[in-house]
Amino acid sequence: MKRPAWNGAPPRDGEEAKARIIDAAMRCIDRHGPGKTSLSDVASELGVIRQTVYRYFPSTEELFVAVGYAALTSFLERLVDHLAGRRDPADVVVEAMAYAIEQVPKDPYLGLFLDLGRPDAFSRGATSVRAFDACRLAFARTDVDWDALGFSGDELTELLEFLLRVLLSFANDPLPGRDGADLRAFLHRWVTPALHAPAPAP
């Protein structure tokens, strides 16, 4: 017998539909892996036809980008908790980068673009305005007074862009053996001076 659409519980609106599609995509990724998950799998999981999923996400890539953004919120919550109690800005920046470098490739959702061999899609998402805004809010919740240090507005955006681009470099081309204390020492050596360097005159 054919299952009813949306497994008998239609969404109240478009936002709920999107959220349920993203949740279903995560379950399919858990079951099949990102490389073998398709919009057909997600539609079947929800009890709808593919055209219903296409209405909200025109391609698998767009759906996976949405899954990545949904996972980003959870990751940043874990990052803020991990950084709690750290007050030195260099220590916060280095530990944030090291933690992300170590954890992002292990996350089945944040790392799915890399697993699919499409770092360009991952890069576009990681360096988007939406990603910057999420990271800015997370940094604002640490125990560092970034405004007092001169990192506000464009300066903070540039700092976040620098950190994200370094993260992408490590994620796309990891160096064997550079982890733990060695990774943190490497980041401290090259990142810490940038935090204390005066900004060039416009």
TrEMBL record:
PROSITE patterns, A to Z: HTH_TETR_2
Domain HTH tetR-type span(s) in chain numbering: 15-75
Domain of life of the native organism: Bacteria
GO molecular function, a single term: DNA-binding transcription factor activity
Record keywords: DNA-binding, Transcription, Transcription regulation
DNA-binding region: 38-57
Classification via Pfam families: TetR_N (PF00440)
SUPFAM superfamilies in the record: Homeodomain-like
Name this polypeptide is given: Transcriptional regulator, TetR family
Organism: Saccharopolyspora flava
Upper classification of the organism: Bacteria, Bacillati, Actinomycetota, Actinomycetes, Pseudonocardiales
